[in-house]
Amino acid sequence: NVIDMSGNTGGLVWAKGTEAQRPTGVAGDLRLNTTDSRLEYKDNVDWKRFSEGAASPSVDFQADFLVIAGGGGGSRYGGGGAGGLRTSFGSTSGGGASNESKADIALSTNYTVTVGAGGTGGNRVASFNGSNSTFFTITSIGGGTGYDATSPNVKDGGSGGGGDNSVAGGTGTANQGFNGGPTGYGAGSTYNGTGGGGASQAGQAAGTTAGTAGNGGNGLSVSITGASVAYAGGGGGGDYETSAGGTGGTGGGGNGTGWQNGATPETPNGTTGTVNLGGGGGAAMNGGSGIVILRYPNTYTITVGGGLTSSTATDGSDKVTSFT
To answer: H helices within the chain, ranges in order?
Structure first.
C-alpha cells in the first residue's frame, strides 16, 4: 500500500475543484481547493488546510473593502478635495482606476482600522487637509485643502483641493482621486475659486463673470452595502460677488460660499462635506469624515476593538460592517 515516487522530479496532480464543488469526503481525502489555491484534507469532521509557515499566515477568507479618507477643508475661494477612495468592490476604484484585489483575511488576527476626520476649513486663516483612513495595509489619503493666498497650505491629497484666482488646484493621489480645478478667475473685484477634486471627476474651472465659481468634482457610486451610494465628492469653490459659490460634487461635497462682495460680517454660507462620505468642504467650510466598510461571508464574525464605532448588516450571503 506504499507508492514510491522518489525517482519522479515532477509533481503529483491532486483532485481539484472550487469550494462549492467540495465533496462530503471521508477522513484522509486530499484535494486542491481552486477557490483559494490551497491544498486541503478531510479529518474526521471537516475539511482543513495544510499548515503553512508562520511568516505567511493562512488565508481563511477574502473580504471586499471600501476605505475613504476624510475630505479636505475649503479655503476662502478653493473648495476642499474629497478624501481618497480605494475599493475592491465593483469594477472601478477612485481616480478612474480599476477595482483592487480583495483583502486576504486570517482568523484570530488583529487588523488596524482608522477612520480619518475631515479637515478644517478657513476664511483668511489656515485650512487643513483631511486625515487618512486605513484598513490593514490599505491606506487612503486625506483630501487636499482649498488654496488661498492668505493661507497657502498643502492642497494635494487623495483628491486635490481647488485653486484661487492665482494658483491652480492641488493634485490627487493616483488610483484614489482627481485633481482640484485649475486657476480661478480674478479681475477687479470679481474672484471665483475652483472646485475640489472628487473620486471620479476633477474639480471644475471657474467662469470669468460673477457667480461662476467652479463646482466640485463628482464622487464615485459603490454598492458594497447592497445599495448604490455616492462617496467622495469635491467641495464647490467660493465666489466674491454673489450669494452662492460653486455646487459640491455628488458624494458629499459641500457647496461653496458666496461672499456677496465682501459684505460685513463675512459669514461663510457654504456647506460642509458630508460625514462618513469623505466629501470635501465647500469654500471656507469643513470637510466630511471618511468611512471604512468591509463585506465578507456571513459565516464569520468580526470582533470590534475599543475606540471604534461600527454597525453590521446582512446583505444576501454576506455581512457588511461599517466603521464610522
So the answer is: none
Sign of CA dihedral 161, 97, 116, 222: positive
Give the H or E element holding residue 230.
strand 229-231
The b-or-e profile of 248-285 (16+ CB within 10 A means b, else e) is bbbbbbbbbbbbbeeeeeeebbbbbbbbbbbbbbbbbb
Residue with cell 460625514: 275
Rounded CA separation 37/15 (Å): 12
Contact 88, 41 (CB under 8 A): no
What letter does residue 92 receive in the DSSP assignment? B
How wide is the angle at C-alpha 232 spanned by C-alphas 228 and 235, nearest 5°?
130
The pLDDT tens digits of the residues spanning 216-268 come to: 999 999 999 999 999 999 999 999 989 999 999 999 999 999 998 877 788 99
DSSP state of 3: -
